Amino acid sequence: QLVESGGGLVESGGSLRLSCTVSGVTVDRYAMGWFRQAPGKERERVSCISSSGDGKVYYEDSVRGRFTVSRDKAENTMYLMMNSVKAGDQGDYFCATYPSDYCEGKPGYWGRGTQVTVYS
Fold first, then answer.
1. Section 1-11 average pLDDT
2. Vertex 13, ends 11 and 17: CA angle to 5°?
3. What is the CA angle 47-44-82, rounded to 5?
4. CA atoms within 13 A on the CB side of 71
5. What's the CA gap between 36 and 44, in Å, rounded?
6. Nearest to 47, CA basis, from 36, 61, 62, 34
7. Is 28 left (phi over 0), alpha (psi -120 to 50) or beta?
8. Which pLDDT band, with edges at 50, 70 and 90, does 55 fall under?
9. Rounded CA separation 4/28 (Å)
10. Helix (H, G, I), strand (E, B) or coil at 88
């Protein structure tokens, strides 16, 4: 089970940290990703982290340098630290697990999402 939290209102230029609490499997067992869906747009992947054996991290171009994905094994949680937030970052954010060690193919399990609203 994946449960996102941490969404809410954030001022443009501000920061927000999203959490994805994992149950039923260790947070680093599989590759995991963060996705977002803006109103009227398709869901897109913004970041992904491979399993602990590989540890590679991927960022979508528009968030690279501003967002940071991480995992905490003790909390069994994946995080997305969002800095220098822009209006284009607004949307529903979802975490998901991949059925392998790598950020490839389609995720197998999804959380229900958390909403991020950016104001100026």
1. 98
2. 75
3. 45
4. 23
5. 6
6. 34
7. alpha
8. confident
9. 16
10. helix
Q: What type of residue is 89?
A: D
Backbone angles phi, psi at 3, to 5 degrees: -130, 115
The whole-number average pLDDT for the span 55-76 is 96
Cβ atoms of 113 and 94 closer than 8 Å: yes
What is d(CA 39, CA 10) in angstroms, rounded to the nearest whole number?
Answer: 17
Q: Residue 52: what pLDDT?
A: 78
* Closest by CA position to 71, among listed 114, 22, 111, 24: 22
Is 5 in contact with 95 (CB distance < 8 Å)? no
Write the DSSP string, 45-83: EEEEE--TTT--EEE-TTTTTTEEEEEETTTTEEEEEE-
Q: How confident is the model at residue 88 (pLDDT cuts 50, 70, 90)?
A: very high
Are 109 and 27 a contacting pair, CB within 8 Å? no
Read off the tokens for 42: 């398709």
Average pLDDT over the chain reads 96
**Three-state DSSP state, 7:** coil
